[in-house]
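for the record, two folds in this file. i put them one after another cuz i was lazy. first one right below, seq on top, structure tokens after. the second one comes after a little note so u can tell where it starts
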Amino acid sequence: MSDALILTWRQYRLERRMFWRNPSAAFFNFLLPLLFLGFFGAILHGNRHDIETIVPGIAGMAVMSTTFSALAYNIVFLRERGVLKRVRGTPLPTTSYFGGVAANAVTNTAFQIAIIVIAGKLLFGLGWPSDLVELVVFVVIGVVCFASLGVAFAHVIPNFESTAAYVNAVFLPVIFISGVFYDVKHVPAFLRDIAEALPLKHLIDGLSGAMVKGTGISSHLDALAVIGLWSVFGLYFAIRGFSWEQGRE
């Protein structure tokens, strides 16, 4: 194992310890999606179609919350508290630092998806995912997409005090428009058109195919293409606009 990989592993372990020492982060990353799942699951109990809609919808929301929201918060906090600047001045390679941060986000997402799959099986009688390959592919590309968008979005947030307002101004409308809690086929055309342009709706479609419908990845190549385009957009601006410096107004 090379020195860079060892340092990445150590940074990852540090990120995990810091995550569990932050109760609010643990709540929003793990408990909140489960509360949504339990709440809507109880309301929709007995309606098979709606249950099969809500479970992959919550899974898609979990991917977005553990990557986009979490990284936007963390990057702004670390930047404005001067942590990123100090990290930049240490011998720790940049790739090892961000590798540990990214691995932490991937771990949180994997735990979330596993919990939601198990809850869907035990609480609502859904089957186990019928296409594990499709599930893994969409989770991976979803993590890349929303993680890059989260880092890119952090660049436009001027200070940590305004982070919640900025993040929620994006996160909440996207989850409601994209069909987390309902089938987007049943909404007005203009909202459906907006949802079609956003990556979350397509991520939910892919997760639904893997977790419920068993349609296969070939049935959602258009969804992969849209998420891929958003990933390219996010990666470009995440790298182009990244700043190690604090104190931006």
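(here's the note) second protein begins now
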Amino acid sequence: MIENEELKYCVLGLTGMPGSGKGEISVIARELRIPVRSLGDVVRSHFNNICPDRNPMETGVFADEERNTHGKDVWARRLVDEVDELIRNGNGMVIIDGVRSGNEVDVFKEKWGDHLKVLCVHSSPATRYERLGSRGRNDDPDGIDDFKRRELRELGWGLGGVIGSADIILNNEGTMEELYLDARRLLEELME
């Protein structure tokens, strides 16, 4: 727990379906010198360390296996100390990219209370499918059926509930320039 309760800070949890633009918000935040920590990076790092010979397309399956073995909040618990350290070092805002379940939100709320805000980046399924097809990450879906399976898997983790209870919704159906301006304005407001 942060020892100085009077400390002014915000932990911003980014949520949204795959391809909605969470990563772009993270890029903008880094430009504003806001530290970003990604739950997906935590998953990928553990996956690469524990199963280096496993197919990267199984990263989501691995994330699910870890949730089943260590609890639905495992990825959040593996990240809180690092975020706490960033706050203790004077960062007024820290972003957690990729919040996917109410269990993760619960861990973060217990740790930071009202200092936690959840931002949902929203885009339509058609827009997200197109983006994922051109993103080029090794765990991106291979066709529409794979896309639908991934959607259902992530919704099964409780992502829909997190999206539905988000404190802030940012619509991302426009251009990159529009997203950049909207996100930058929002982040600057939250840092005040």
